[in-house]
Design the sequence.
C-alpha cells in the first residue's frame, strides 16, 4: 500500500513539473506541501524539494527575462525615434542637393522625383533587392548633382553647346561622383551618378563603357532619365507624346539602351507616366518620401539594431 502511495505521489510531482514547464503554476502549492518530512516518505520529500528549487529558479529567470524584455521594448522605441529622425535628415539632405541643382538648371525638382519613381518602378520589375533599390533611389535623385560645378555660361546657355563647351558639360558626372564620395551614405549612388550617360554601344561618357560593363543601376536609370526628358515640358521644349517617345527610345535600344531592360520598361512606362502626369509636385514629394520610408527605412532599422531587438522581444514573449 505504501509503495502504491509513493508511485501516486511521484506521478503527482511529475504532473506538476510538466504543468510548470507549460507555464501553469496553479498546483505548485501541492508540490511544496510534499516537502513536509513529518508527513511524506523521504524520497518524496527530497524529490519535491529538488523540484521546488528548480521552480524557484525558473520563476526568477522568468522575472529577469520580463525585465529585460521591458528594457528592450523601451530601447526599441528610442531607436525607432532616432531612426526616424535620421531618415528625415537624409531625405532632407537629398532634397536640398536635388533642389539646388534643379534651380541652377532652370528646372524644378519634379524631374528628380519623377525619374526616381520611374527608375524604382523598373528596378522592382527587374527584381532588385532592397539594397540595390536603395542605391538606385539615391543615385536617381542625385544623378545631376555634379552640374553644381558647371559654370552658368555653359549650364544655362540657350543655344547648342560648342564641342569645347560640351566637353566641359560632360565633366558634371565626375564632379557628381566626387561630391557624393564626401558622404559615406551616398557612396553607393556612384554607379548612377558617374555612369548614367554611358551608352550600351560604348559611345557614351565618361569611360565609354559598353553592354554589361555599364553598372546595372546606371542602365536602368538611363531609360528613366531619357523617357522623362522626352515626355516632360522644359523651358526650351514642349513635351513629346508618350507613344512618340517610346518609338524614339525603341530605335535606340541596343545602341543607347540595354535592349532587354527597354523591353521591361516599355511594358509599364505609359501607365506610370499617366499616374505621374496627374499629380502635383507636392504629391510627387510625398511619393518620394514613401519610397525612402519603404526602402531606406528598412535598411536603417536593420542597421540600428531595431530588427534584432524585435526578434529578441518576440522570442522572449514566446518563452514566457
Sequence:
Amino acid at each position: 500500500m505504501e509503495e502504491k502511495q509513493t508511485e501516486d505521489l511521484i506521478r503527482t510531482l511529475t504532473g506538476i513539473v510538466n504543468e510548470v514547464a507549460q507555464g501553469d503554476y496553479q498546483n505548485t502549492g501541492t508540490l511544496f506541501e510534499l516537502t513536509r518530512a513529518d508527513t511524506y516518505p523521504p524520497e518524496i520529500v527530497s524529490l519535491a524539494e529538488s523540484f521546488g528549487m528548480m521552480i524557484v529558479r525558473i520563476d526568477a529567470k522568468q522575472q529577469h527575462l520580463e525585465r529585460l524584455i521591458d528594457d528592450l521594448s523601451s530601447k526599441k522605441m528610442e531607436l525607432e525615434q532616432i531612426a526616424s529622425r535620421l531618415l528625415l535628415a537624409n531625405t532632407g539632405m537629398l532634397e536640398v542637393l536635388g533642389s539646388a541643382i534643379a534651380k541652377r538648371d532652370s528646372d524644378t525638382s519634379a524631374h528628380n522625383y519623377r525619374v526616381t519613381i520611374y527608375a524604382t518602378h523598373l528596378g522592382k520589375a527587374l527584381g532588385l533587392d532592397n539594397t540595390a533599390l536603395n542605391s538606385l533611389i539615391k543615385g536617381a535623385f542625385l544623378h545631376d548633382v555634379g552640374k553644381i560645378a558647371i559654370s552658368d555660361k555653359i549650364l544655362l546657355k540657350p543655344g547648342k553647346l560648342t564641342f569645347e563647351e560640351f566637353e566641359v558639360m560632360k565633366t558634371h558626372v565626375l564632379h557628381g561622383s566626387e561630391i557624393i564620395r564626401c558622404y559615406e551614405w551616398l557612396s553607393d549612388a556612384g554607379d548612377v551618378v558617374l555612369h548614367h550617360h554611358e551608352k550600351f554601344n560604348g559611345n557614351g561618357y565618361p569611360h565609354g563603357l559598353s553592354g554589361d560593363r555599364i553598372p546595372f543601376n546606371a542602365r536602368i536609370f538611363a531609360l528613366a532619365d531619357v523617357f522623362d526628358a522626352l515626355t516632360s515640358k522644359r523651358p526650351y521644349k514642349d513635351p513629346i507624346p508618350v507613344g512618340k517617345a517610346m518609338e524614339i527610345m525603341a530605335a535606340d535600344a541596343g545602341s543607347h539602351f540595354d535592349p532587354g531592360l527597354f523591353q521591361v520598361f516599355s511594358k509599364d512606362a505609359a501607365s506610370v507616366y499617366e499616374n505621374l502626369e496627374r499629380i502635383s509636385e507636392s504629391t510627387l514629394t510625398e511619393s518620394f518620401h514613401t519610397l525612402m520610408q519603404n526602402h531606406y527605412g528598412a535598411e536603417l532599422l536593420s542597421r540600428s539594431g531595431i530588427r534584432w531587438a524585435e526578434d529578441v522581444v518576440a522570442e522572449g514573449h514566446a518563452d514566457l
Remarks:
- Confidence is low (pLDDT under 50) at residues 304-310, 316-320.
